[in-house]
Amino acid sequence: MLHHIAIFASGTGSNAKKIVEHFKHNHNITVSLIVTNNADAPVLVMAREYGIPTLVIDRDYFYKTEDILKNFNKFSIDFVVLAGFLWLVPTYLVRAFEKRMVNIHPALLPKYGGKGMYGMRVHEAVKKAGDTETGITIHFVNEQYDDGDIVFQAKCLVNTEDSPEDIAKKIHQLEHRHFPKVIEKLLAE
Length: 189
Hints:
With 189 residues, the chain is of the alpha/beta class. The chain is built from 7 helices and 7 strands; from the N terminus they run E-H-E-H-E-H-H-E-H-E-H-E-E-H. Helix 5 links the parallel strand 4 and strand 5.
């Protein structure tokens, strides 16, 4: 069976790119759609470079209609990946893709999760708390921010001299190393 993935991203799309590259020559899994809520997002440039169709959404489209499901049907989407997507996913979409939608979070949930906890905000909170380790969490998506069942976690050390930017670099390395492989494993089950 060929799996078709939709990746949601709001910004640069470094995780999206790693996922696209990971599945580029895979005959069972393909990235069929990139969805963004930011018409200027660099992830759109990456999608064009790889010849992947894109969909730019606004709040009304996402929250007041279920039209995205029609678009997903056009592309045979059967799995959704949130890779730096900052909006809360509406209930209709969570239910349509129950246990078939994952998110990556740049901390060891349940620590540093929830509304407003993304990107450098997370790394600054880790540094401020004096934590000696942090990491990534890949989890299924439910109706709350960063609250779904945890699928995978990976850790890294935080040294006292690490800045939030240093922590971010360590987290990106973990994300890029593990996210595509975890997705592949989930689709193989």
